Amino acid sequence: MAQYATQYTNLSNIPAPPLHLPWNEQVVLVQILVGIFLYVNCLMICTFFKKESFRTDTRYILFAQTLFMDSALMVFTDVALIWNYFQITVNCIPCVILCTIMNWLTLGTPLTLVAMCLERYVAICMPLRHASISTTRTRLLGLVLIWCLSAIPALIILLAFVSSVPLSIYTSYMVCSVEMMMIYNWQVQIRAGLFQFYFIVMSITIGFTYVKIMAAAKGASSNKKSASKGLRTVVLHAFQLLLCLIQLLCPYVEMAVFKIDYMLFINVRYSNFIMFILAPRCLSPLIYGLRDEKFFLVLRYYAVFGLNKKDFCYCKFCPLDLKNEKTWPLNCI
């Protein structure tokens, strides 16, 4: 055990590389992107809570959960990225807590995406049963199930780490990263096995919903537009899920690169952060925040602070009292 404690001590004492101007610019760019991302997400979350019809609709509830998970994960990963870039060492205990939360949130978004695909499958392929299935009770159970399933790998990784390190580790300081919880090869294999299992199950589920919705789109006569839109939504979710799951492989690539060259490791980590953490989480606002006409109109209203209310009505003749939601007609937002 002592050799691993020494390994962590040595890792935390790696001298920080000189901060050249290009790297400073990249760090600033990441902070700008994260700031824009968090602003858009917070605006969408506020829009969700402003309208009662969103708060009682399953797909918007799942969308809001995705926004919350993505925003929280973005904050934690950005903090870890800054710590790694500037080689800031922290105590082991808060580092372990941070890594466990990140592992927890990492699987939360893909599982929520699968739930959103299933909701679209029920809405399009079983429209008569959608209202009876999508109840307050089933929504609550679904949300709890998503949080519990995403917590299982994080808890297993945490227990494996706690059971395999000496107590002296908890008083040491180190550069915080998810890889610090992977001490033995069997821990890496368990983590990889869990993520592969989740990947297979989620891929099969999304593939099933795609085939069913595609069949409904071909066979439908009156609801082809809705089915086609649902099909495109599932395809976007599948692409988003693929990017999220590629992120699970990034630590293994980064660990291999770290042994070769430190500056290359920094470069690879920066690229992975942009492509596989930022990019897939920017798709959620695109899929629902911009493609969904109803949500987009309300979002646009609050984005411009309620200016020019007449532009936010589907029809020219319907009165619009945005302060009193009960007076909104069905064909207005």
Secondary structure elements and pairings:
Blueprint: H1 2-12, H2 21-50, H3 52-55, H4 58-85, E1 89-91, H5 92-125, H6 127-133, H7 136-162, E2 173-175, H8 185-219, H9 224-247, H10 250-258, H11 262-290, H12 293-303
Antiparallel strand pairs: 1-2
Description:
This protein has a two-stranded antiparallel sheet with strand order 1-2. The N and C termini lie far apart (62 Å). Helices cover 75% and strands 2% of the residues. The longest helix is centred in the middle third of the chain and has 35 residues, at 185-219. It is mainly α and 333 residues long. It has helices spanning 2-12, 21-50, 52-55, 58-85, 92-125, 127-133, 136-162, 185-219, 224-247, 250-258, 262-290, 293-303, and strands at 89-91, 173-175. Helix 5 packs parallel to helix 8.
Uncertain segments of ≥5 residues (pLDDT<50)?
Answer: 1-22, 314-333
Q: C-alpha Rg, in Å?
A: 23 Å
Given the C-alpha coordinates, what overall shape results?
globular
Main beta sheet strand tally, sense and closure:
2 strands, antiparallel
Estimate what percentage of residues fall within beta strands: under 5%
The helix tally amounts to 12
Task: Quickly give the structural class.
Answer: mainly alpha
Order of helices and strands: HHHHEHHHEHHHHH
The largest beta-sheet arranges its strands as 1-2
- What's the N-to-C terminus distance? 62 Å
Q: Can you give the mean pLDDT?
A: 77
Instruction: State the helicity in percent bands.
Output: over 70%
Number of strands: 2
Quick overview of this protein structure:
The chain is mainly α and 333 residues long. It has helices spanning 2-12, 21-50, 52-55, 58-85, 92-125, 127-133, 136-162, 185-219, 224-247, 250-258, 262-290, 293-303; strands at residues 89-91, 173-175.
